[in-house]
Amino acid sequence: MRELELVSLDRIQETEEHDLILAIRLAETIFELGIWTVPIAIEQSTYAVMDGHHRLNAAKLLNLARVPCILMDYQKSGVVLHSWRNEFDISVTDIFMMIRNNKKYPLKTTRHLFNPSIQEVSIPLSLLY
């Protein structure tokens, strides 16, 4: 079973660009609900986002201190990596190189598939400030 952790936003590394308008809309929805429902999937050794760039940026817009995350390992967690874009052939090595070089892929480049899928949660926002 994957464990949920509340991770400080300043520890999490982005690996892709995001759409600010989508992040704003998501922040508004999260604020209206008053709960966080989908954990961010992050790589356990680098704290790099596998899935959840818009959620991470929504959390920043809400001035949250931490967010619910599932820490995962590419080899041990049943993660399959693809690209949404035909012009990119992405490997785990490529992602680690981007992290080391402090670079980001364009919006919607990486696609991570999780087996089993990430389960929803219900964490009050008051616990995340």
**Architecture (CATH level 2) name:** Alpha-Beta Complex
Helix amount: 10-25%
The count of domains is 1
Radius of gyration, in angstroms, nearest whole number: 14 Å
Order of helices and strands: EHEEEHEEHEE
Instruction: Describe the largest sheet.
Output: 4 strands, mixed
E-strand count: 8
* Total number of helices: 3
Quote the beta fraction. 25-35%
CATH topology (fold) name: Conserved hypothetical protein from pyrococcus furiosus pfu- 392566-001, ParB domain
CATH C-level name: Alpha Beta
Gross morphology? globular
Query: What value does the average pLDDT take?
Result: 93
Instruction: State the CATH superfamily name.
Output: Conserved hypothetical protein from pyrococcus furiosus pfu- 392566-001, ParB domain
Structural class: alpha+beta
Distance between the termini: 27 Å
Order the strands across the largest sheet as they lie in space. Answer: 1-5-3-4
Structure, described:
The structure is a single chain. Helices cover 25% and strands 26% of the residues. It has 129 residues and is an alpha+beta fold. It has a single domain (4-123), classed as Conserved hypothetical protein from pyrococcus furiosus pfu- 392566-001, ParB domain. A hairpin with a 5-residue loop joins strand 3 (40-43) and strand 4 (49-51). Helix 1 packs across helix 2 (53-61). It is globular, with a radius of gyration of 14 Å. 25% of the residues are buried.
